[in-house]
Specification:
By secondary structure, this protein is α/β, with parallel strands linked by helices. Among the domains are: about 80 residues, Arginyl tRNA synthetase N-terminal domain (Gyrase A, domain 2, 2-Layer Sandwich); about 90 residues, no CATH class. The protein contains 21 helices and 12 strands. The strands form 4 sheets. A 4-stranded parallel sheet has the order 5-4-9-10, sandwiched between helices. The chain has a 3-stranded antiparallel sheet with strand order 1-3-2. It has a 3-stranded antiparallel sheet with strand order 6-7-8. A hairpin with a 2-residue loop joins β6 and β7. α5 crosses α18 and α7 packs across α9. It is flat, with a radius of gyration of 28 Å. It starts with a helix and ends in an 8-residue tail after the last helix.
Length: about 550
């Protein structure tokens, strides 16, 4: 039940709309103050009364019933108290009946959301800097599908540019097919690094010529490029499988080679294209931005050219409701320019393009700089977390079956959660010890809570019926937290912020553990035991669904 809606529909304040009341209702900072609160300060001007008098009037006239059992005015607020027993029954029965779909909806039915994320570069291994875009995009993909939207995951591959001419040149000079096949992506990257450190002027010239051959469709050059691409995609797929992410399209920059000219022609026809020092630009000065460069003076296209073509292609192909770009905040200006150019072209759907910006990731020792040679491969971070998880699990539960499988779920989950727990725009300093802690705000803590709840259910079962005879505060807090899950998922989608679900999971885990330690479950008697077992099962459902939406596996035992 949407309690905010239930409350707002029963309030009559002449001159104030139901929507205004609904949006004003919030959660009190202290549970003792009630379950929902309506601040009346913003209504004072319209109603020509003090907030205190407005609150008193609304509280006195509110029709309390079997759902809302109390409405009380306190210092300009109306505090509403829910009938906890009725809430508990509704929430527990709803969660148990829905199971893996608890918290889902069909609000997005018929709407497509394109999500451009991860977007790896061909011939370059995954480094830890790719973690945020991959984890955030993967979570949003799952969240939007969970809410009934059709999510389209797009990996906008970095597969265009002079670096591929350099790579072919390096392979021709120093490469060996068997060694590259054996070494895969790392062998390719080694060749590229060697070119950048050893290439002379003649090789630089050769590299430019090889790139020209790729663009002109030369058979050998393109066969080599396609080979490098297949080795890259084979490699990244192993990472994606570990991180539980998927894509529906791998259309990268090269895909739009033949789709840029119509965009350039349209810009020219609409009088938007101007020449500046030999280059072709769209002047955005009046909008407080530098010009958007469309073609260089030598006629070469740029990122903006390809992104304009990509946006138009996606709209024509998917007719999206929203198109998200999960890209680091350093590209803020780039996307503002691209979105503005599309708007100036008359694309009314430009308003539906969203840059989901995120902060940077580094390790505690600061390792991240490509130029300084301190790149940290994501596969190594994952492997180290899994290895450390295996050691911790072996120490805590040496007789646990399937320890390696559990360690994989714990280690990979820690990597994902480490990227998702904080607000996405914040820079992250990744700490192995922190993300693998069984205490505190970690996925390991939530997974361990799931294992604890699962153990209770294995021993006590899930009752088909239960009675409720008053709730202890610890029980009531768990009920309220379970009830909040659907809204947390909805908020995460509306704000493009998976951390809302991550923080929700930790909050519910904390409340469940307090209930677990303070209230007897298996040794309780009669109705109390059945209710607490049902509550445990409902909490486990919400916790599992939370982790699943983030792409994190849930071990039955730990």
């Amino acid at each position: 039940m949407d309690y905010k809606k239930y409350i707002s529909e029963k309030i009559n304040a002449e001159g104030v709309s139901g929507e205004e009341i609904y949006s004003a209702i919030a959660l009190p900072p202290n549970p003792e103050m009630g379950d929902y609160a309506l601040p009346c300060f913003k209504f004072a001007k319209v109603l020509r009364k003090s907030p205190v008098l407005i609150a008193q009037s609304l509280a006195e006239s509110y029709p309390v019933d079997e759902v809302i059992e109390k409405a009380e005015a306190v210092n300009g607020y109306v505090n509403f108290t829910i009938n906890k027993s009725a809430l508990a029954r509704e929430v527990i029965e709803g969660a148990l009946a829905a199971g893996g779909k608890y918290g889902s909806s069909e609000e997005g039915a018929g709407k497509t959301v394109c999500i451009d994320y991860s977007s790896v570069n061909i011939a370059k291994p995954f480094h830890i800097g790719h973690l945020s875009t991959t984890a955030i995009g993967g979570a949003l993909y799952k969240i939007f599908n969970f809410l009934g939207y059709k999510a389209v995951g797009i990996n906008h591959l970095g597969d265009y540019g002079t670096q591929f001419g350099k790579l072919i040149c390096a392979y021709k000079h120093w490469g060996n097919k068997e060694e590259v096949e054996k070494g895969g992506i790392h062998a390719i990257n080694d060749l590229y690094v060697r070119f950048n450190s050893e290439a002379d002027e003649q090789m630089e010239h050769e590299a430019r010529e090889y790139f020209r051959l790729i663009e002109n469709g030369d058979k050998e050059a393109n066969e080599l490029f396609d080979w490098f691409k297949s080795l890259t995609l084979s490699y990244v797929q192993t990472i994606y499988e570990k991180l539980n992410v998927r894509f529906d399209s791998y259309a990268g920059e090269r895909f739009y080679t033949d789709k840029m000219q119509p965009v350039i022609d349209e810009l020219r026809e609409k009088g938007l294209l101007k020449e500046s020092e030999g280059a072709q630009i769209v002047d955005l000065e009046k909008y407080g931005m530098p010009p958007c460069l469309i073609l260089r003076s030598d006629g070469a296209s740029l990122y903006a050219t390809r992104d304009l073509a990509a946006a138009i292609y996606r709209k024509n192909t998917y007719d999206f409701y929203k198109c998200l770009y999960v890209v680091a905040y350093q590209q803020n200006l780039h996307f503002k320019q691209v979105f503005k150019v599309l708007e100036l072209m008359g694309k009314e759907w430009a308003k539906d393009l969203v840059h989901v910006a995120y902060g940077m990731v580094s390790l505690e020792d600061g390792a991240m700089s490509t130029r300084k040679g301190k790149v940290v491969w994501l596969e190594d971070v994952i492997a180290r977390c899994v290895e450390k998880a295996y050691g911790i699990i072996s120490e805590k539960n040496p007789d646990l079956e399937n320890k390696q499988d559990v360690a994989e779920k714990v280690g990979v989950g820690a990597v994902i959660f480490g990227a998702l727990y904080n607000n996405k725009i914040k820079d992250i300093v990744f700490s192995y010890d922190k993300v693998l802690s069984f205490e505190g705000e970690t996925s390991v803590y939530v997974q361990y809570t799931c294992a604890r709840a699962n153990s209770v259910i294995e021993k006590g079962g899930v009752p088909s019926e239960f009675e409720i005879s008053g709730l202890l505060p610890q029980e009531a807090e768990v009920v309220k937290s379970i009830a909040a899950f659907p809204q947390a998922v909805k908020d995460a989608a509306e704000k493009y912020e998976p951390s809302i679900v991550a923080r929700y999971a930790v909050d519910l885990a904390q409340k469940f553990n307090k209930f677990y330690f303070d209230c007897k479950i298996l040794t309780a008697e009669g109705d109390k035991k059945n209710f607490r077992l049902a509550l445990t099962a409902a909490a486990l459902t919400a916790l599992k669904n939370s982790l699943t939406l983030l792409g994190i596996g849930v071990p039955d035992k730990m």
